[in-house]
Amino acid sequence: MLGLVFLGCKESALRIKARYDQIQGLKENDRVIFEKNQVGLVTGVFYSEHGYYVVDLAIERRFANAVTEHAEFFIIGDPQNVGQKAIEMIQTRRGGSPLQDGATVQGSIRSSAVFGQMREDFEKGLEGFKEQLEQFFEDLKSVPENEEVKKLEKELERLVEIMKQSSKSVQEKIQKELLPRVKEEIGKLRERLRKFGREEELEPLDTQMEKIMEI
Q1: CA triplet 45, 88, 37: central angle to 5 degrees?
Q2: Cβ contacts of residue 38 below 8 Å, gap of 6+?
């Protein structure tokens, strides 16, 4: 019903394009969600000549201020419609410049940006974040090793920035409660790559871990 109501508002909606390597069954008229509320619709999905998917989104104008340079768009299972997909919009950081009508963003699968999206939980406690981290590692099992390295590198870059902006107590919690699990996962990946003589591919991860340990 909400989707049908929103259809009448599409003419005045904020239009955004999101690029994805995979769309996992996402289709036109699937919902766009922000903080558990429907704020828009998928208005089109097509595969570009450059080898990626482009998803057209229409966001209600009253939520336009939430669509900033720090907003990320994840494909998820629709929590209200079994068997359907949705796009969840998450602000990884407060503030930022609003995106203009027609802007293009890089979308992600749900496991991406795990550190960014859970930033506020570092201050509240780490239990919820640990669950998200485990899901992130589980999802990585379905991608090739080279893609896994890229995703981990991006997440570690986020973690470096978060730690720089966090209090000493939060930094200590991350060092003590989270980094051992991250190191364990990198170790497993290192063993798999070593069998193929590709261990040097982990150098970017080692660099990010060194930065974290120096904070």
Answers
A1: 115
A2: 2, 3, 6, 31, 32
CA angle 140, 141, 142 (to 5 degrees): 90
User: Which residue matches tokens 């699937």?
Assistant: 30
Nearest-angstrom CA–CA distance, 20 and 135: 20
Give dist(CA 15, CA 104) in Å, integer: 9
Over residues 46-101, the pLDDT tens digits come to 999 999 999 999 999 999 999 999 888 988 888 888 889 999 898 877 788 999 99
Nearest in space to 35 (alpha carbons), one of 60, 63, 57, 2: 63
CA distances from 67 to 42, 78, 177 (A): 15, 20, 33
